[in-house]
Amino acid sequence: MYNVIETGFVYCSFLVVFVGxxxxxxxxxxxxxxxxxxxxxxxxxxxxxxxxxxxFAQNEDVGTYQNIITVNFLPLMLVFLLIxxxxxxILKMGPKMLLSFFCATFTFMLGxxxxxxxxxxxxxxxxxxxLGAASGSWIGGSSNMIAAANALGVxxxxxxxxxxxGSIGYTVWMSVCLMSVKFGPKFxxxxxxxxxxxxxxxSKLEKENKDNTAPTFxxxxxxxxxxxxxxxxxxxxxxxxxxxxxxxxxxxxxxxASTVSILLGMTKISKLKGSTLVGNVFMYLLLAATGSKxxxxxxxxxxxxxxxxxxxxxxxxxxxxxxxxxxKLDLFTCxxxxxxxxxxxxxxxMIAGVHNPVLIPVGVLxxxxxxxxxxxxxxxxxxxxxxxx
Length: 389
Known about the structure:
- By secondary structure, the chain is mainly alpha-helical.
- It has one domain (87-273, 298-388).
- It has helices at residues 8-28, 33-36, 39-52, 60-82, 87-91, 95-119, 127-137, 142-152, 156-180, 184-191, 196-206, 217-238, 249-264, 275-292, 302-327, 331-342, 348-355, 360-388.
- The longest helix has 29 residues, at 360-388.
- The protein is globular and about 65 Å long.
- This is Membrane protein.
């Protein structure tokens, strides 16, 4: 296979069709393999394999479109995924839910630091960048990793390692959490926790009316206007802000777009329908475009990164259980807080629903909190790893 796609428009069209086919297969075919391998991994590795075999020509036209997607879809993704996050609603979850979430965040960050100390001599010189970006997917989900990777200038091969490590780590930990649900009463007895607050949180969230109807044409146009407006504002402002070290122009785009979107999330704009759907479109197309530039056959350090991820999971598990005992946290709170970090808003509701379907809204809000802080935490981890390198 060599240079089948030679024009930018056909390249973009292929990415859209490719992502659509992946999600069609996941949704309609119901193969068990899709329970283990998530769409994100299929999209990235699939486009990387096709790119490695030379499906996409490395000419000016294709390169221009790749650059347009990489530069512009990043802030658009952030805006659409973050304007739905109303911090005031998240604060209603109560102190124990928030404590659980931030304990999970801290232990995942600790896991990255400890694993880096163990493996840094076996990894490349720029591994601190790759791992710093990877930590974003362990604190809120893949959108944070993509944002951090672009801000840090992580190469396509490095992003391959990050995605592979995150997917395996997530699969292992999610499996452990699902299997441990039945041990909830014993765990709660061991930690001596009080679970009455969960009922209070649930009753508060059930009072929030949810409108699941599709957005109207006017609502969709307003949503797009906000998204493109904020993304453009972030790009304009980033060009006049000072740069230093890892705080480059792309980093400013990420920080400005994220911060403005979070502020807008506390206004009526957060009620606009369809923001998550639109944000996911940009996220998966950005992921596919990034993968198409990767060299799948150059992943010589994959075993080290996989071991790194497993050590992170182990450190998180041990330290988080210790904190659960210290703060008297129940298993539901711990598992939702943990999965809200490593899986984000797409999977936190799943683990919440396994415990009790009524508590799914708690998982959604915990996942949204991960979306909000993930990119910032990833940059903190990056700075720590850089100092340790």
